Recover the amino acids of this structure.
């Protein structure tokens, strides 16, 4: 009987040791999670405070960023242990001349409030830009990280105003990401 208990004890020790070894082996993956969000600014003007037409035009558009579409992450899509979104670079393509994105807000579905915002983006000013990662922005990025880990995708919405219409623009967002993956799981 004692012999059986020793064998059982050794088997349990080996089982739990193997699991601990599997979880301790990680692979870092540094990559850029990129999504293009095309948007159209129509000619409909915003009403000013006095009821007169103002010279700003609204836009909003959404796109899904799928982690599995990233070349660096394809092999690890179901093996993500953690992710650190270290920053983001935004480029507004096709702005020319006096065209200006007066306000830009970037949100992620399921995260309350905007992740970040930026004002006064022109073809030559603030374009591309990387928001300074303040404590408030980092708190929002932490929530986005949780969605990336749990859902392997996020829905990004860009919205704001421009000084000109009609326009067809593209917001490219490139998140600087460091994944920790468990290849043996």
């Amino acid at each position: 009987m004692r012999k059986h208990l020793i064998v059982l004890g050794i088997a349990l020790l080996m089982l739990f040791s193997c699991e601990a070894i599997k979880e301790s082996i990680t692979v870092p993956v540094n990559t850029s999670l990129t999504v293009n969000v095309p948007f159209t600014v129509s000619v409909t003007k915003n009403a000013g405070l006095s009821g007169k037409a103002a010279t700003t035009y609204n836009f909003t558009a959404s796109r899904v960023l799928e982690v599995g579409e990233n070349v660096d992450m394809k092999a690890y899509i179901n093996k993500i242990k953690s992710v650190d979104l270290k920053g983001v670079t935004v480029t507004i393509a096709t702005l020319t001349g006096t065209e200006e994105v007066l306000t830009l807000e970037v949100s992620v579905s399921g995260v309350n409030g905007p992740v970040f915002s930026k004002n006064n983006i022109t073809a030559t000013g603030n374009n591309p830009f990387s928001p300074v990662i303040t404590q408030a922005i980092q708190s929002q990025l932490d929530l986005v990280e949780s969605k990336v880990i749990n859902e392997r995708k996020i829905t990004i919405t860009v919205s704001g105003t421009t000084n000109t219409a009609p326009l067809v623009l593209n917001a490219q967002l490139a998140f600087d990401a460091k994944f920790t993956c468990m290849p043996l799981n």
